[in-house]
Amino acid sequence: MNKNFLASLSLLMLVVSSVGAQQRQTQDLILQWGSTDVRYPRNEVPAGQGNKQWETDAWKGERVNAQAVLWTRRPLKNVRITVSDLKCGKNVIPASATTTSFVGYVWTDELNKDRKSGCSDRPNKADWDSSLVADVLEVRKSLDIEAQCTQPLWVNIWVPQDIPSGVYKGALTVSGENFADVRLPMKINVQKRTLPDPAQWVFHLDLWQNPYAVARYYNVPLWSRQHFDIMKPLMQQLANAGQKVITASVMHHPWAGQTEDPFDSMVFRMKKIDGSWVYDYTVFDRWVEFMMSLGIDRQINCYTLVPWALKFDYYDQATNRIRFVEAKPGEAAYEDYWFSFLKDFAGHLRQKGWFEKTTIAMDEREKSMMQKAFDLIFRADAGYKVSGAGDYYPEIEPKMYDLCLAYGHTLPDSVREERRRSGKLSTVYTCCIEAYPNTFTFSEPAEASWLMWHAVAGGYDGYLRWAYNSWTKDPLHDSRFRSWAAGDCYLVYPGSSSIRMERLVEGIQDAEKIRILRKEFAEKGEVAKLKKLNQTVSGFMPEKLNGQNASQMVRNGREVLSTFQIG
Fold first, then answer.
1. Which end is more exposed in the chain, N or C (fewer Cβ atoms within 10 Å of the end residue's Cβ)?
2. pLDDT tens profile 502-511
3. Maximum CA pair distance of the chain?
4. pTM score, whole prediction
5. Helix/strand/coil for 541
6. From CA 486, how far away is CA 327, in angstroms rounded?
7. pLDDT tens, 376-401?
8. Which residues pair with 183 in a beta bridge?
9. What is the predicted pLDDT for the residue at 117?
10. What are the structural domains of the chain?
11. Residues 240 and 209 sit within 8 Å (Cβ to Cβ)
């Protein structure tokens, strides 16, 4: 037989074999761009053909998110995610500006599936209607993926502020030990507008921190060097979201221990034998200084004179033990406990240069109790500021520097405008009560963004959520909690962000864009543009959400923002 013929036949067989292998691989593995609006089920093949290219608009300085979906028929070993430099001619968004994550799954519940409330005490886990849900953004080098599984992949790109505008192109690559590399193209249309650094954002973000949860989870001594080192990336992530407020507890268990890790007092109190009081602010100072060093330095909220359980601890020198005072605002024992502290605390804050930044904070307390507490606070020092979250009370509103209303409640327009003119803050919050929209682990991802748009639409200065990191016993695996809807207690995970948190930051960026555009249009007299923008924003109200999809509303809102380009 002719040697040339045999060689040609061998080559043909090799090509056919290679093509066959590629076809089998294509059938075995599917990689496509998905949507950041979707929590993809682990054991379902992604529906539809998906997108082969991801494209988005972005301002300079903006963080943008994308989600790809990988499905495999067979086990994959040592799967890795990389994103190339994104290039526009000689200009580059470097790969170092990108963070890639494997989306992890946690247990969630459907406590509010009737959309009535997410508050309920459920000591028996058998009562929980539970499932696995995609939420954790695990930053890791590689991952083994089981057969017949869907693995979402998350990409976050922080567009540099100093790059020229233009169309930047690159690719996402998924590689591993037992399959050929798979790529997806990506494109960012960088506009001529620039978003300021998070520290300069005006939006007043107040996500409550829990340092006690960090010490417990990582099993390190409270307030040790290890403790602060572990907290640094966690709280830096919060600073990068534009956080403005430091959460400080100045008494034992201000919320009656309702979290897995109760807050304790950052101030040590001692009642001396002669009946006088002595205070040690060492822990408080270290915590505040640490948070300020990360850029969270706008406000210090100190909880609380009116806790959920009216029980206050101190060290009694006469008996050499910890004792408790049980008293209500207005009672002599309450006055004795708090008046001396407030006077001493004011002096300490002034010495540190923090007095003007500090509020004495209260959370969902009765009006009469708050009124009596306010009276005591201002008698101790008339310069104190107070803050509170809850219902609107016209009688005490003028006394509150920082007023946060529950979602669905409103301030009269005249009150809101007067507060703004006088430099006071008016914000909005959600908790377990608000079934929809919210930031639970079973909430649609876009709900987190929608709430930031709502804060702007409602004329509020910002948003409050009661916990950034009050972790459950096993937060990376189980977001369910004994009293609240799953995910209510925390927005981020140990060592990881979440889909919810990233979508919330997107909404804050949108709020900043709206603020910047409103100012520009007003100064330039661009009436039509301002009207279009305001009409878009006005739709993000509770009564207009009924019957509409939060995801679609947010997408539509962002499309409008993208139309306001600089020519």
1. C
2. 999 999 999 9
3. 114
4. 0.93
5. coil
6. 34
7. 999 999 999 999 999 999 999 999 99
8. 173
9. 75
10. 26-194 (2.60.40.10), 203-246+344-563 (no CATH)
11. no
